[in-house]
Structures are given as C-alpha cells and as structure tokens.
C-alpha cells in the first residue's frame, strides 16, 4: 500500500484525534499558507498573468491562442524554479489537472500543513486529516473525469466547463472539505485498531501466527469509491486491518 493512502487509512481508522475544526484550521494556518502562496506567485508571476488571460477567454479559439502563450511562460518559469521548495504541483502538474494559480494554492497549503506540524500547532493526526481534505479539494477542482488517469484537454464543446474548473478556489474547497471529514467509530474504538503497510494476502497469515493480534476486519479498496471521502483509489490498494470492533 502506498504511503499516502496508508496515511488516509490511519486517519480514518486509527486516529486518536477527530478532524480539526474548520475555523481552527483557517485561523492557525492562514498566515503560513499566505506567506508561501505569495512567494510562489512571485516565482510564477508570468504564468499566472497568462492564465488570467486564458480564464477570461470568451471563445474556444481565443482560449487556444492564449494557451500557447501560457505554455511558453510556464515552461520557462518551471525550469528556473528551485527544486524541493514545496513547489511540486507548480512544477509538475500546473496547466494539466489543475491551473497554475490552483497549483500555487495546493503547494502553499501543503507547506502550511508541514510547518504547522513541525511547530506543533497541529497534531500528527490533524496533519493526516488535513492531507485527506487536500486530496478531496483536489478532486473538486481538477480537470478530470473523476480519477487521475488522464486530465481533460479543452474542446469546443467543453471549454466553458474547463474555464469554470480553473476558476475554483483551492483554499476555500480545502476548508470546506475539512468540515466534511469523519473518522470511523469513536476514539476509544480506534485506539485498538492497527494499520499495516502490506498486501492482505501476505499480512493475514502472519497475523494468524500472532497471539496478540486477532483480525476482526480487513478493508480493501480496489476501485474509485464514491463514499464519504471520494478519494481516487484506482491506482493503489488500501488495506487496513482493524483489531477489535465498535
């Protein structure tokens, strides 16, 4: 199981803390977020200006013409951007699934979460919850079919939807998502749960030889699940073992 999806499983089934309140998140992380957002906005200023022109397009032909300028600007600025500076989405995914301004917001939120955890403004469980919320926000703003196998390119019949998605604000969607998260069971029940980073076919025999771990349930997600969290799971398997029961 991929590390990022294990974090989601830990948040839902093992977390000692419930998801943080939306107002607490906004008050505690905004200054950290805004500082990095402004820094990245300066680094990608030409791309952001070009994208604003794209978003203001009235016709498909106009959009295509302005997209060409955007591509040139983004390619140049991404090539000059320093590596490992919390700019992964700006450098790798801007102008694909998400817009440049949206990529800036995502990278700024990711850094705010990391710094808040380092400074112990939030707990490690809260950090996991906020990452889950960021994934949910990314789904809402992305220009895709509901999964990330391939982003959608604008077409004459769909370019208006493409522009609407580009206008969506990631910070607002992220805060809204934090208010939509719920853990499984209560805290006392989750205290007895375990989460393993291993395929269930090899894990279960090992647990059968353990006298202290008695599996009561194995949760696997092989497909994209439209449930509470709507997280794309098609690429990876999530296997979370619950020890005990509600």
Please give the count of helices: 11
For the largest beta-sheet, the strand count, sense and barrel status come to:
2 strands, antiparallel
Detail the poorly predicted runs: 1-5, 218-246
User: How many structural units, i.e. domains?
Assistant: 2
Cα-atom radius of gyration = 20 Å
Order of helices and strands: HHHHHHHHHHHEE
Total E-strand runs: 2
SS strand fraction: 5-15%
Quote the distance from N terminus to C terminus.
Answer: 25 Å
What shape does the CA trace take?
Answer: globular
Fraction of residues in helix:
55-70%
Average per-residue pLDDT, rounded, comes to 77
Spatial strand arrangement across the major sheet: 1-2
What is the topology?
Blueprint: H1 3-13, H2 22-43, H3 45-55, H4 60-80, H5 88-92, H6 100-118, H7 124-141, H8 159-166, H9 170-178, H10 187-190, H11 200-208, E1 215-221, E2 238-243
Antiparallel strand pairs: 1-2
Helix pairs in contact: 1-7, 2-6, 3-4, 6-7, 7-9
């Amino acid at each position: 199981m991929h590390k990022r999806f294990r974090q989601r499983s830990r948040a839902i089934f093992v977390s000692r803390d419930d998801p943080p309140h939306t107002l607490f998140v906004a008050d505690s992380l905004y200054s950290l977020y805004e500082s990095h957002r402004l820094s990245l906005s300066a680094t990608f200023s030409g791309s952001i200006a070009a994208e604003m022109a794209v978003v203001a397009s009235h016709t498909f032909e106009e959009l295509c013409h302005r997209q060409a300028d955007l591509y040139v600007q983004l390619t140049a600025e991404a090539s000059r951007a320093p590596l490992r500076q919390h700019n992964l989405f700006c450098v790798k995914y801007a102008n694909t699934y998400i817009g440049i301004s949206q990529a800036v917001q995502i990278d700024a939120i990711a850094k705010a979460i990391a710094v808040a955890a380092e400074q112990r403004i939030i707990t490690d469980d809260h950090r996991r919850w906020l990452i889950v919320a960021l994934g949910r926000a990314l789904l809402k703003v992305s220009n895709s079919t509901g999964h990330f196998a391939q982003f959608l390119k604008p077409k004459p019949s769909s370019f208006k939807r493409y522009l609407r998605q580009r206008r969506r604000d990631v910070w607002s969607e992220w805060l809204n998502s934090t208010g939509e998260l719920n853990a499984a069971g209560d805290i006392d029940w989750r205290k007895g749960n375990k989460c393993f980073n291993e395929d269930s076919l090899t894990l279960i025999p090992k647990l059968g030889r353990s006298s202290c771990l008695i599996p009561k349930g194995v949760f696997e997600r092989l497909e994209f699940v439209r449930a509470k969290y709507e997280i794309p799971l098609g690429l990876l398997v999530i296997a979370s073992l619950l020890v005990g029961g509600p």
